[in-house]
Amino acid sequence: MKKVMAISLAIGFGIFVSWLFMPDRPDTYVVFAYATNLNPDLTTALTNRLEQNRISYQLDTSGNVFVLESHLEKAVICCS
What we know:
By secondary structure, this protein is of the alpha+beta class. It has helices at about 1-20, 40-50, 70-80, and strands spanning about 30-35, 55-60, 65-70. It is about 50% helix and about 15% strand.
């Protein structure tokens, strides 16, 4: 019984460690700029700067600008 429990714990720990170091974990988009703070010219300028710096972004139907959470610091540096 102890062998089975030890093997199960070892397998579970191995799965957990491999999940932590998995490079393809999905990244989430976070709001970078709200539409209420932007006019069309500012939105265009912001998206142009994001494209020039190769930062992935999305626009929603309201005009909010989202960037990947992992690129948030890079977006702040390039667009401040």
